[in-house]
Amino acid sequence: MATPHTEARSSRFGQLLSGSGLYMLGNVVRRSFSLITMPVFTRYLSTSGYGVLSIVGTVQHMLEVFYEMGMGSASTRFYYDCRDERERQALFGTLLLFSLAATLILTVLLLATGGWIWGVVGKDVPFSPYIVLTIGTVFLGNITVLPYVLFRVENQVPRFLRLSLTQTTLTVLLAVLFVVWLGLGPLGPVLATFIIAMTFFGVYGYSLRRHVRLVFRWPLARRALAFGLPEIPLRWGSWALKVADRLILQHFTSLSVVAIYSVGYSVSKVPFDLVVKAIDWALVPFFFATATKESEVHSKAIFARLATYNVAMVAGLGLGTVLFGRELIEILASARYAEAEAIVPIIVTASVFEALFYIPSKGIYLQGKTGYLLPLFTIPACLNIALNFVLIPRFGMMGAAWATLVGYAVMIVLTLPISQRVYHIPYEYGRIVKVVLVACILSALKGVIVPAAPLLVRISMKAVLLMLFPLALYLMGFFENDEIAWIRDRFATLVKGRAWA
Question: Which among 14, 36, 298, 360 counts the fewest CB atoms within 10 Å?
Fold first, then answer.
């Protein structure tokens, strides 16, 4: 029989699953640009042309770190401290005005000095027009930070989905038009992204009209900066761990090698970006709300169980990506990128380590100890960059992949003890070990029992291996009685619903 404690916890998890599912759909829409266009761009562009797009994307990610200035996490955190709507409007108005002024100054400085800086860093990609357009895109796109926070905390998911779908669809259509019909090469997607960002600058600005009062209160801005600025090294470290290797690869190899590496990296990372990032979007308000509304003991028990589910989900996602890595490359790219399969298991493992960071880090945010995040990202990032310079000249793109894996492994090793000291969560370590063990065994079996065969045969055999994952967990006693009962209830409800239909 379910206890009130169990029912409350189930209700909380149900809300999180619902929110995660909707945000996952929205994130799929937002990320679908790279998924939809990869088969087109890898076939209509040369490998060096696709490498140019990879370098431009690297620069865009780096600039977004500094342009946001931690305003996203700060506005999410302080939203819950506002007593009424008027205070929230003052908060978002202050942050909007500060963000626009600061990023405009940054944009002018980059356009004035960026040509000289880029001449030192980027040897094969011209500063104008590629990097100039990218700087403009980041400036215009930064206005989405505050609306996305409001969509999350006020549960305006349908609006988020509509805007994401419209923006992504227009960007894809315009980019494909520029590449396929107008023959603009790698400049096409860069130009298309800038044009759509310029259009939606007005759209997102209009969406903020009811949520802001155009007042500037320095105490609010200072408080937000104190909370958010320590996140810049964190996000810089995240950028360095994810994409800095592209710039270093370009320095020591060629744009073609960068393109092949980027395809393998994207195939390994996109599933995690779609699923894990979507869950994290729903997890941020869930975590703060649970910690506020529930007792400390109860909330920590919820977070511990949530961490177990998170590990199981991440492990299953990693297993599926490793199993189907070759097939994903064949479908999304072309035979020219077959070498990318070699880095998939390494990057997937690194992605698993990155995903495991999200639950422990929430306790640090909850306690407002964002200063602790500085070493958690800067140390792995610096190590990653150093290893790239050491390994890439000797091992090429494989060296970049191993440097990425080491960086993320060090990050999770540093994060767990620090987060437990700041906000201790009683993790279910025994269950977590079972998940990791099963995923590793099934991944290793791929090379033993899946032969070289036609595509459909390989997919069928790998699908069987993937389906063995939950079965093996059940046989190892991973699932607890209340979880088995919940699954049975949901299955019975599903069967009954179909019977009535």
Answer: 14
pLDDT in tens, 153-185: 776 767 777 888 888 889 999 999 999 999 999
Cβ contact 310:358 at 8 Å: yes
Q: What global pTM score does this model have? A: 0.78
In this structure, the number of other CB atoms found within 10 A of the CB of residue 392 comes to 23
* HSE (side-chain half, CA atoms, 13 Å) at 90: 12
Return the axis-axis angle of helices 296-323 and 255-293, rounded to nearest 10°: 160
Q: What is the DSSP letter of 3?
A: -
Give tens-digit pLDDT for 115-133. 888 877 777 889 999 999 9
Nearest CA among 349, 357, 351 for reference residue 439:
349
Closest Cα partner for 261 from 244, 237, 236, 240?
A: 244
Give the 3-state secondary structure of residue 501.
Answer: coil
pLDDT in tens, 40-55: 899 899 999 999 999 9
Length of the chain: 501
Label residue 11 exposed, middle or buried (CB < 10 Å: 0-12, 13-18, 19+): exposed
Please give the Cα distance from 199 to 240 (Å, whole number).
Answer: 30
Q: How far is CA 150 from the centre of its chain?
A: 19
Q: How high is the mean pLDDT of the chain?
A: 83
Contact 45, 336 (CB under 8 A): no
Rounded CA-CA distance 197/475 in Å is: 51
Which tokens hold the place of 94? Answer: 């202050």
> In 3D, which of 65, 87, 57 has the Cα closest to residue 75?
87
Cα(71)–Cα(12) distance, rounded to whole angstroms?
A: 27
The C-alpha torsion from 257 through 258 and 263 to 268, rounded to 10°, is 110
